[in-house]
Design a protein that fits this description.
With 81 residues, the chain is mostly helical. Helices cover 74% and strands 0% of the residues. The chain is elongated and about 50 Å long.
Length: 81
Amino acid sequence: MAKKAFSTTMNGETLKALKLYAVKQERTLNDVLEEATVAYLEQKEAQDPDAALFIRRANEPLADCLAAIERRISKIKKHRA
């Protein structure tokens, strides 16, 4: 899948630590963040069935993903009612 740009904010000290780590490892900040994100999703996948669903749907068109999320939320709401 093609890389996509996004923007976020985070604690300045955390960002600085990530940048320093990336430099020490002779890697880009993007590579470090992507690796950390993949590890985070894999950890969550083992704990949360929704995370597993989102990971599987990541290769699908966005409209299909949003429809699946809406169906899942609807199912959760019905279950809670």
